[in-house]
Predict the 3D structure of the following.
Amino acid sequence: MTPIQEKHARYVLTPWLPQAGLVAPVICRGEGVHLFDTDGNRYLDWASGLIAVNLGHAHPGVAKAIADQAHTLAYAAPGFFNEKRALLAERLSEISPWAEGCRTFFTTAGAEANDDVVRLARTLTGRSKVMAAYRSFHGGSGLSITLTGEDRRWHGEHMGAAGVVRFFAPYPYRSPFHATTPEEETARAMEHVERVLLHEKADTVAALLIEPVVGSNGVILYPDGYLARLRQLTERHGILLVFDEVMTGFGRTGAAFASQRLGVTPDLMTIAKGVTSAYIPLGGVMVKESLAKAFDGRAFPCGHTYAGHPMAVAAGLATLDAYRDEGLLDRGRALEPILREGLGKLAAKHDIVGEARGLGAFFALELVKDKASREPLVPWHGQGMGVMKDLYANLRKRGVVTFGKFNVAMCAPPLTVSEAEIAFAISALDGALGDLAKAL
Ligand SMILES: Cc1ncc(COP(=O)(O)O)c(C=O)c1O
């Protein structure tokens, strides 16, 4: 270990992992789709950080906007009006899925946005319960971790999950409903969620919160009709439908939001990550105009010191300028067939790749012991990453960094990635998967 690695291991607590034995490259620079470490190694950022750096690293326009803002006004209380905040909220309204537009409440991160959207839904409906899916991630804060439907929740559960009701959502590759076709999966998943609703008493449910494409839990695409039918179901019962677009927003799926790509419009959306391409922490709750109006005559029930922080909104506005000027919000549509073909070839070639799936620039490889049994290559909710750690280490040696959860590895480069860079990553994956299969 270098002296900095030693200091890091000694003094920094790293999220979610056992701390003993942690060692990682010391990243000191980013440029385009690449990261560089202090040993002079270059890595292709195959997961856009944590699926967030949609613009790629060191975009000059965003860097300049942040520097200019720091020199002009680094902070003003949220009660003051601010030009960049107004312009960013206007731009979000313009690219939102709502013809009526929206207003945005800015937060510092996705977790905080999910905490706040639950409070808004409860305030707006006067109901207390919130439905969220298993195998979901909604953030690491007090409430958002209780909305989360996987093992990261277990640590935070003692903080109380009052009113959070969970259900199983579709997972076509591993149907929780023993379905054999997408149509069956949708029909059975709907029957299940309707049954949950019946037993919970629908008129006690304020909101149903869902990732329109499951993100860190494995880039799971819902079968046709599922989200549309959830839309109908929630409407029928006066339940607010909330899309957590923290990971799927800002071009990741080939449209501004997954809502537009998938043709289903929620009532509220939470955002973060891509809104600033992760250059500065920023999240938000986008509230459609007809709901936001409710707060004209009553106090808005959320607030933070950093709500609409000038540095963050300046970065957000410059990021949205770059997405627009460089045509990136729909570039995922062009990247999709290239990624599908490259990753599909890996799935066909390697027995340990059970499925390559995704849309836009949002793909993943699900690894299995063998294709027939589909047994996950490493156990879910196990201790550590098992052999997935070896895969990621091997990829790093080949100049590619990514991450994953359980037995699923993320393939979600910045939207600026070139075809040659995709080919480079696919070739690295090919080699690393081959090595992993040999070592098993
Ligand atoms: C879908 C989703 N929601 C919420 C969050 C939490 O966002 P943050 O880490 O900015 O709090 C994440 C983070 O990965 C996410 O993927």
In short: Residues 419-439 form the longest helix (21 residues). DSSP finds 14 helices and 15 strands in the chain. The pocket of pyridoxal-5'-phosphate is lined by residues 50, 109-111, 114, 137-139, 211, 215-216, 244, 246-247, 272, 283 (CB under 6 Å). The radius of gyration is 21 Å.
